[in-house]
């Protein structure tokens, strides 16, 4: 039984939008940005900072991820963002794709850094911490959560994804968290509450 920080696990889904592109170009650590409405719908309990969890693009596999929420003090952004670095090397950009994430743990607050190198070093250490935590069996189980098996993207509706035929699961959730936010098992049968529909993508 895992014990979660207040507000977690948090499930979010949205279409990947363009950020400033610095993640790939300057940091060598690409991030996928959620649109404004997903960021604005974050519950109060989820403050700015660095989180880890699982992520899935369209009908693809579910990968480990790290996420930064906030104003990126190093770059002094004017708009709050929610940027996911998926711990997998993708061949192409996936702007316009559907991104599903579950945030399971918090690593640290956002910080300013004296150099780009120290920002990169901090992110790499976040990735190592995420890798370690997500290998724990109680967090591994979220990889198979019903949220990730619910296929809302049109491209997924014609076939079989993740070994499961279309439409066999009905307890979908978008941008919300589970009823019991302190201790849950992470089974794919968990009851989900507080779900709201975003972008018309979740049926
Ligand atoms: C795991 C992780 C941790 C991050 N930590 C910080 C941080 O502490 N301070 C900061 O200014 N930006 C932080 N960032 C944000 C990066 O600066 C950001 O991803 C980069 O500016 C790229 O943004 P862009 O794709 O919108 O250009 C972090 C990003 C990730 C993925």
UniProtKB/TrEMBL annotation:
Keyword Ribonucleoprotein assigned: no
Domain of life assignment: Eukaryota
UniProt xrefs under Pfam families: Flavokinase
Keyword Cytoplasm in annotation: no
Cofactor(s) recorded in Swiss-Prot or TrEMBL: Zn(2+)
Alphabetized GO MF terms: ATP binding; metal ion binding; riboflavin kinase activity
One GO process term, biological-process aspect: riboflavin biosynthetic process
Keywords of this entry: ATP-binding, Flavoprotein, FMN, Kinase, Metal-binding, Nucleotide-binding, Transferase, Zinc
InterPro entries: Riboflavin_kinase (IPR023468), Riboflavin_kinase_bac/euk (IPR015865), Riboflavin_kinase_dom_sf (IPR023465)
SMART domains: Flavokinase
Pathway assigned in UniProt: Cofactor biosynthesis; FMN biosynthesis; FMN from riboflavin (ATP route): step 1/1
Reactions mediated catalytically: riboflavin + ATP = FMN + ADP + H(+)
This enzyme's EC code(s): 2.7.1.26
GO cellular component, one term: mitochondrion
Residue ranges constituting the Riboflavin kinase domain according to the UniProt record: 5-135
PANTHER family: RIBOFLAVIN KINASE (PTHR22749:SF6), RIBOFLAVIN KINASE/FMN ADENYLYLTRANSFERASE (PTHR22749)
Chain's role: Catalyzes the phosphorylation of riboflavin (vitamin B2) to form flavin-mononucleotide (FMN), hence rate-limiting enzyme in the synthesis of FAD. Essential for TNF-induced reactive oxygen species (ROS) production. Through its interaction with both TNFRSF1A and CYBA, physically and functionally couples TNFRSF1A to NADPH oxidase. TNF-activation of RFK may enhance the incorporation of FAD in NADPH oxidase, a critical step for the assembly and activation of NADPH oxidase.
Name of protein: Riboflavin kinase
Organism listed in the record: Halocaridina rubra
């Amino acid at each position: 039984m895992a014990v979660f920080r207040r507000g977690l696990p948090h499930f979010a889904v949205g279409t990947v939008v363009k950020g400033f592109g610095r993640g790939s170009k300057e940091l060598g650590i690409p991030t996928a940005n959620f649109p404004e409405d997903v960021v604005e719908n974050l519950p109060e309990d989820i403050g700015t900072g660095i989180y880890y969890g699982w992520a899935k693009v369209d009908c693809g596999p579910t990968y480990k991820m790290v996420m930064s929420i906030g104003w990126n003090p190093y770059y002094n952004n004017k708009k709050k963002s929610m940027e996911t670095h998926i711990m997998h090397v993708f061949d192409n950009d996936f702007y316009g794709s559907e991104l599903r994430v579950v945030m399971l743990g918090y690593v640290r607050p956002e910080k300013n850094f004296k150099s780009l190198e120290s920002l990169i070093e901090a992110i790499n250490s976040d990735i190592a911490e995420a890798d370690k935590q997500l290998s724990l069996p109680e967090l591994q189980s979220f990889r198979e959560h019903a949220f990730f098996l619910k296929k809302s993207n049109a491209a997924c509706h014609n076939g079989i994804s993740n070994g499961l035929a279309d439409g066999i699961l009905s307890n979908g959730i978008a941008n919300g968290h589970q009823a019991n936010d302190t201790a849950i098992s992470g089974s794919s049968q968990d009851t989900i509450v507080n779900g709201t529909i975003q972008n018309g993508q979740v049926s």
